[in-house]
């Protein structure tokens, strides 16, 4: 990341911060001597986090056949690996913009798109029969935290970047690199590193717009970066609308990274909405029903047929 930008971030008094309880959970989970009861005691200091942990454990997203009635039971069912990163997820959704530009930042839209990305990433992970569903959900939720950071730190400068993106029709990360010598994915990775977030999240988040920057060696980091890149494409279909460019981009990435057909892309779009709404309720976020319903009910056949001629072959 650009050294000047890094220094400005380090000096800023407007950085997003996460609650002490989440940081303590992350620290405790790195210790081999920590047990479930200790972590449950810490989480119980935060009533909102405790409630969300229980709801998540009992939800269809991560739930077991029988209900958990205590935080300790929920942690056992989800596993400490999932618990530490999901505790972080519950904390970051409270982050807000700061400074003079807070009124111009659409926080609701930001967390709406982040949550959709998170649930789609988790669903892709489920459908590809991998085990890192907690990491996928949290990485998807956090991958754009660099946008919030850049807004807080740079204010008017970053407003210029976003205005140029809208007017030119270019990708945000491309314009960021032109103006800032870094993009929001790199900034997100830097922020997560400052919070001592595990590398299994930091590395894929840092490369989620450009997975090709990572070694094409079949590693988990490379695979997760590709999952996040594809999840971002699905998010655009929900948040920006079902159109030919978005359909083509999504089908192209899913074919390249996952060997998915356009029909499987359509299947995920139509089936993911209930999980998004369930997660939104747990995190106290509001997602207008039309954001999900319009994509799920849209007639995609023509666009998918057109996209089929643009898709790449299966990833190597």
Descriptive account of the structure:
The protein has 316 residues and is mainly α. The chain has two domains: 3-17 and 95-308, Hypothetical protein af1432 (Orthogonal Bundle); 18-94, no CATH class. The protein is 68% helix and 0% strand. The chain is built from 19 helices and no strands. It has helices at 3-11, 20-29, 36-43, 47-57, 71-78, 80-92, 107-127, 133-142, 145-154, 156-168, 172-180, 184-194, 199-206, 220-240, 244-258, 262-271, 273-282, 289-297, 301-308. α7 packs antiparallel against α8, α7 packs across α14 (220-240) and α14 (220-240) runs antiparallel to α15. The protein is globular and about 55 Å long. It starts with a helix and ends in an 8-residue tail after the last helix. Mean pLDDT is 85; it is low at 312-316.
Summary?
With 316 residues, the protein is mainly α.
Query: Over all CA atoms, what is the radius of gyration?
Result: 19 Å
Structural class: mainly alpha
Please report which band the strand proportion falls in: under 5%, 5-15%, 15-25%, 25-35%, 35-45% or over 45%.
under 5%
Number of helices: 19
* Percent range of helical residues: 55-70%
Number of strands: 0
Overall pLDDT confidence = 85
Order of helices and strands: HHHHHHHHHHHHHHHHHHH
CATH class of the largest domain: Mainly Alpha
Q: Low-confidence spans: pLDDT under 50, at least 5 residues?
A: 312-316
Largest sheet: none
N- to C-terminal separation? Answer: 29 Å
State the CATH architecture of the largest domain: Orthogonal Bundle
- The backbone outline, from C-alpha atoms, is globular
Write the CATH homologous superfamily of the largest domain: Hypothetical protein af1432
CATH topology category name of the largest domain: Hypothetical protein af1432
Tally of domains = 2
